[in-house]
Amino acid sequence: MDEAQRLSGLIGEIYDAAVEPSLWFDVLGKAAEFVGGVSATLFSKDASRKNGQVHYDDGRIDPHYKQLYFEKYVKLDLATTGHYFAEIGEPVATADLIPYEEFLQSRFYLEWARPQALVDFVSAVLDKSATSIALFGVFRHERDGIVDDEARRRMRLLVPHIRRAVLIGRLIDLKSAEAAAFADTFDGLGAGMLLVDKAGRIVHANTAAHSLLASGDVLGASDGRLVANDDEAGRTLRDIFSSASQGDTAIGIRGISVPLVDREGSHYVAHVLPLTSGARRRTGISYAAAAALFVQRAELQTTSPPELIAKHYRLTPTELRVLLAIVEVGGVPEVAGALGVADTTVKTHLGRVYEKTGTSRQADLVKLVAGFSSPLSA
């Protein structure tokens, strides 16, 4: 099977997982193999709680090490600090966040990654808030080598579809819904949901969507067709609906999150799920529907405190990592021990942080971070 066929089949399974979460186990295993790794996972990290959670994985990481990561190493794996200001959807390898030689000296690598023969991790941010990030990532084994251009290229092919599936799955959360009651389940959603054909004709709308249509502030209907108040958003949606009728791959990466604005200037966001094949086609939905459109009011997007600090002072990921480690862990010896690097290495990075922030003492750095309302100082 060539790459195009593998990708097409995998994209279809990714969208099926948005409807049936139990499919993520197999989907992530295939995603890992496609990218060129040993295991893949969907997980989140929360800076305010100083913890994280695996939402779905392929079961290929030893349960002991998975538990150990969140019990002990999630605080030491400060390389992921860089994810808080990484571009959404862009593949990021370990060396993009921390000098690779420093990574090889860290406790996280020596005590957690090396015993499993893991040498790298390529990931992408799917969504982020002020204090948390959701990611898709693939572990690289010794036999895979460190992340290369080919792995990044393949990540870019998958990430937009995984992001769409995760965002929609978070809205519908159909963990135990009966397939025959699919449409009825949608009726209980807080988000507006409409089923449309390839021409944008409305096949079904849930209660929340009927309210949106009745108000006409964001979306409306004309001769049975869905229309948006914003002309550009309307054209984007029509193009996506038409593409969705041609198959999962045809929808491409367009319109993962289509912005909508009502007449008063309030912001909404729409996600489109193709319904042309796979488990989505076996849900009891009328075969006239080419896509499901989910619409909800957009949450206020706030910048995370680490991201604000890094941008304000133009800190590199490594410098930000050391700054937050000083706040979280303590002095230079403690940070060096936690990260598994020499005191001199920490002092070098710390000196640059002092210079960029205009401070001269560790206590000043604690106050600086507190001033940005960082949850790490709470």
Indicate how many domains the architecture comprises: 3
SSE succession? HHEEHHHHEEHHEEHEEHEEHEHHHHH
What's the CATH first level of the largest domain?
A: Alpha Beta
Q: How far is the N terminus from the C terminus?
A: 53 Å
Largest sheet: 5 strands, antiparallel
Order of neighbouring strands in the sheet with most strands: 6-5-11-10-9
Structural class: alpha+beta
What global shape is seen? Answer: globular
Question: How much helix is in the residues?
Answer: 40-55%
- CATH topology of the largest domain, by name, is Beta-Lactamase
Number of extended strands: 11
Beta percentage is 15-25%
As residue ranges, the low-confidence spans are: 174-182, 374-378
Tally of individual helices: 16
Q: Mean of residue pLDDT?
A: 82
Query: Which CATH-level-2 architecture of the largest domain?
Result: 2-Layer Sandwich
Nearest-angstrom radius of gyration? 23 Å
Description:
This protein has 378 residues and is an alpha+beta fold. The chain has 3 domains: 3-172, GAF domain (Beta-Lactamase, 2-Layer Sandwich); 179-297, PAS domain (Beta-Lactamase), CATH 3.30.450.20; 305-377, Winged helix-like DNA-binding domain superfamily/Winged helix DNA-binding domain (Arc Repressor Mutant, subunit A), CATH 1.10.10.10. The protein is built from 16 helices and 11 strands. It has helices at 3-19, 24-35, 63-73, 94-97, 100-105, 107-113, 149-172, 182-187, 207-215, 231-244, 278-281, 305-313, 317-328, 332-339, 343-357, 362-371; strands spanning 39-46, 51-57, 118-128, 132-141, 192-196, 202-205, 219-222, 225-228, 258-261, 267-274, 291-297. The protein has a 5-stranded antiparallel β-sheet. The protein has a 4-stranded antiparallel β-sheet with strand order 2-1-4-3. Strands 7-8 form a two-stranded antiparallel sheet. A hairpin with a 4-residue loop joins strand 1 and strand 2. Helix 1 runs parallel beside helix 7 (149-172) and helix 13 packs across helix 15 (343-357). The longest helix has 24 residues, at 149-172. It is globular.
